[in-house]
Amino acid sequence: MSSEPTTANASATGKKQPVVCVFCGASAGTSPIHLAAARSLAEALHAQNIQLVYGGGTFGVMGEVAKTLVSLSGPDSVHGIIPQPLVAFEQGADPASSASTIDESMFGRTTVVKDMHTRKRMMAREVIDGGPGGGFVALSGGYGTLEELMEVTTWNQLGIHSMPVIVFNVDGYWDGLISWVNNAVKSGFISENNKGIMVEATSADEVMVKLREYKNVEGKFKLTWDQE
Ligand code: AMP
To answer: Gene3D superfamilies given for it (predicted)?
Structure first.
């Protein structure tokens, strides 16, 4: 277990591997289709030899995607990054203890960080450093998932990164979000160019295709981390 931020994603051969950051619910949802989608995404990541960075939780859609990929590609393929205050809530640790008790052989390497912003920056850094083939993928989730998805979308809009942002729309779960984007473009609050920052996929295989074929949108600002 590491409490120091690291961003290494080298394979056993020392060669860098693409990294996908998955945002998704700490809950499982009421339909088994959401956990099934998490497993299918993990299988697709395994098939493409892609590493996963995620929020480090052991429950819900988060836990499902992590443990499925670990079972296929091994613990080194998954890096969970969790803020200290969430260890008790999202890993089921003893609230009286500050330590993470996660089973890394089941959920992958875990890094405990001081706060939410450190987690998000570290996750994004790993995706960027992993290079082509990687990106951000949102599975089904709640407020936290939406907030994380919007943050990497706005970081893309600001030119802080140019990695793909894919919305895995499981059984129409994100239809409302996609319709909101279309309305915001129509109403002049999102430019036609920036409409393409978030890309929809409806299956794990399509997520992989969209990650590969992602086109960076033109005409963005070119801000850096310090200016966000
Ligand atoms: P949820 O989608 O609400 O189940 O949350 C999924 C993940 O999003 C959890 O690991 C939360 O820690 C994380 N998250 C990220 N940013 C936030 C935020 N601002 N508020 C709440 N949860 C957040």
So the answer is: 3.40.50.450
Phi first, then psi: give them for residue 83, nearest 5 degrees.
-70, 140
pLDDT tens digits for range 117-166: 999 999 999 999 999 999 999 999 999 999 999 999 999 999 999 999 99
Whether the CB of 169 sits within 6 Å of ligand 1? no
Structure tokens at 164: 């793909």
Compute the distance from residue 84 Cα to the ligand 1 centre, in Å: 13
How far is ligand 1, taken at its centre, from the CA of residue 219, in Å? Answer: 30
- Which residues make Cβ contacts (< 8 Å) with residue 30, sequence separation at least 6? none
The pTM of the full predicted model, rounded to 2 decimals, is 0.91
Q: Is 25 in the pocket of ligand 1 (CB under 6 A)?
A: yes
Ligand 1 contact, 18 CB (< 6 A): no
CA distances from residue 174 to 4, 177, 187 in whole angstroms, order as listed? 35, 5, 20
Question: Which residue in the block uniquely carries the two structure tokens 């892609």?
Answer: 50
In one-letter notation, the amino acid at residue 47 is A
Q: Using an 8 Å Cβ cutoff, are 181 and 157 in contact?
A: no
Separation between Cα atoms, residue 22 and residue 167, nearest integer Å: 10
Q: Compute the distance from residue 15 Cα to the ligand 1 centre, in Å.
A: 32
